[in-house]
Amino acid sequence: MSLEALLKKPDIRPTNAPSKECRPGLVWIPGGTFMMGSNDHYREEAPAHLVRIKGFWMDRRPVTNQAFAEFVATTGYVTSAEKPANPDDYPGANPVLLAPSSAVFRRAMHGVDLRNPYNWWTYVQGADWRHPQGPGSSIDGLDDHPVVHVTYDDASAYARWAGKRLPTEAEWEFAARGGIDGAEYAWGDIFAPDGRQMANTWQGEFPWQNLEFDGHAWTSPVGSFPANGYGLYDMAGNVWELTSDWYQDHARIKSVRDTIDDPRGGSREHSCDPRNPDSRIPRRVIKGGSYLCAPNYCLRYRPAARMAQPVDTSTCHIGFRCAND
Hints:
Largest sheet: 4 strands, mixed
CATH class: Alpha Beta
Order of helices and strands: HEEEEHEEHHEEEEE
CATH superfamily: paralog of FGE (formylglycine-generating enzyme)
Radius of gyration: 19 Å
Shape: globular
Number of domains: 1
Number of strands: 11
Structural class: alpha+beta
Oligomer: single chain
Strand content: 15-25%
Distance between the termini: 29 Å
Helix content: 10-25%
Number of helices: 4
């Protein structure tokens, strides 16, 4: 069947879709066929390809500090950022650098070389989900903000405790589009319709000038901006969200499979960064962009956008939400 014919086919809508009242806090996402990825922006988003998925449930909002605190209080869970790194994973590393820490954004004082992320990122000992900007900071008053400084293992542990799972990359992107296939953003093709800010992103020149037209310099309370067509909040900006898929750069794949039932996810072995052969840390796909995404550096507050995140690394701008079948 031709690409044109597939695009004209109606979405697959289950006739037995469950009532939205069945799962508090979750939204039923009907299955369907959509064009995943983009050929118009960053190379890792290409090639755009048709994908078909089944219906599933998805959290209406990202997991908050309050929800994560309940999980920790119940289970005694300790996040990756709160534990020292395993020296065996980092042969030859300075032991000081293996102390419990996490990556924290530090705003630059002026324009800097955007090719060097260390101009705004620093590993801070004592930074974790309770102390998002390092020792001395706290989440007091941030109960309804998304939890950050979590790794893939942390997010997976929470999901299992909650009786859920992390969404796949294809599920996440389908849900983010809100029923508007092919649109640039989760709400349409215009970034700020009628001047209205639709997501928590960076306005100005990153990483030193944040004009804060959206009212936020850091994370924002979940649900601060309009929901998309499926009733999901924060599917763009605020925090990047972890998915269950191993990262693979599809643009590097010479042969493209034709089945629309295969979103072409990666494998653990091939998810490692080929530019850094000395490090064999696997990577997962993150989606959605964050409050640090800006047009001059990281225009990734779009459904098609994707990035690779090492499974051992947490940051102040990555969180997650859960899904269920």
